Amino acid sequence: MNRRARRSKTDRIDVQGLLRALMAHLRGEPKVVSVVRVPSVEAEDARRLHRERHRLVGERVQHVNRIKGLCALQGIYDYEPLRGDRRERLAELCTADGRALPPRLAAEIGRELQRLELVLSMIAELEAERDAIAAEAHPNAAKIQQLRRLKAIGTEFATVLTNEVFYRRFDNRRQIAAYVGLDASPFRSGRMNHDQGIAKAGNSKARTTMIELAWIWLRHQPDSILSRWFRDRVRDLRGRPRRIAIVALARKLLVALWHYLETGLVPEGAAFKA
Q: Is there a single domain that holds both residue 146 and residue 268?
């Protein structure tokens, strides 16, 4: 852009530029504009269920760690707050000889247990609602049920992937990888030519879910072609090469699941649940 002279700027000039960009897009030029596909109110509202559950699981971890830390101050390392007999076990610790909890500390742990039990009840309520939605007859429920047929994919993974990714329409594998943030970021300038890793510019919730699912896929689908590709690629390597390979596996798995939902093509070698 020539900066030597001032450039005229009016609303009419801006509208003409937008019209030229729109006409170029309608002619089929793919890179002249980026089309934003705004999700519907129903699609956006469907995400709140698993996102709230994710936040509650984080709160559960905080309460459990807090209770275990308070017990560790007294040398108690075998107390499990998530067990069903946590109240009875706390009462035993308050009356134990030689290792009884101080009264104020026991009261604080009791209040932490109240918060933990409230969070556990909320998580159970959300999971019951999630399972009920998965059994309903609508397009998202059909995709959730189709994903749940595969080993390594449970109701939570199927719900997150359907509501975060597969409710949209994608034209090719590059679009779906870019939406999740698992597409490559090459750097080519002159003689320099190297890869900068994944873009990480997409849906972060879906990206972390896919990477977690990739690890579980290796355990429960060892005979699939994707698991064999990972083993042949990594072999006995540890550390950073293994983490890089699992991200590549997550992208391949995402594309394979997309083809499975769109065309019914099962990932090669994948097994179904009994």
A: yes
